[in-house]
Design goal:
This protein has 174 residues and is of the alpha+beta class. It has helices at 2-29, 48-73, 75-97, 150-161, and strands spanning 33-36, 100-103, 106-109, 112-115, 119-128, 131-138, 143-149, 166-167. β5 and β6 (131-138) form a beta hairpin. This is DUF5673 domain-containing protein.
Length: 174
Amino acid sequence: MQWLYFVTAVLAFVLALYHLFSHRHRVNNQETRIYSLKHSSHIDTDSTRYMWSVRAARVMPVTALFLILMLFQSFPAATVLFALTAALGLFVLLTLDKTFEVQDGGVVFAGYHARWNAVKSIYWGRKRPGKKQLVMELQKGQRITTFVSDKDAEDVQKIISAYTFFDTHRGPQS
């Protein structure tokens, strides 16, 4: 059980650092937001939920370090800190997953901030009822996916096509 707590603390610490550094990067670049989805399943970097996730990410390293220290002192206290750290980590992770925003210098795609020159192509993936999968392929071969509602799909394709290659030949897969 102690190993589970320890691994959770380390993962929460790393996730918090990633979120804080990527948020600081976005703030320092001062990029203009061009487009963000209005659908409730996606958020932008100015939303209240995103700002609360930044606050939670500031608390997570402290709770993770105290969790590691409490593993050697008091297991019941470590259990409480484990629950708190896991809840904060889940909140931050789900918030990052729902973040989508097109900026003039890049795109924030499922929590990943990619500059336009790092994006190889963007294309539609699988189609589900009421939404399509949007796939971003980076120059290094990594693929990141998110879902876009059918109502926003045409606008997203038109806006992203102005900045990078939108591969329409890959089309939705069944």
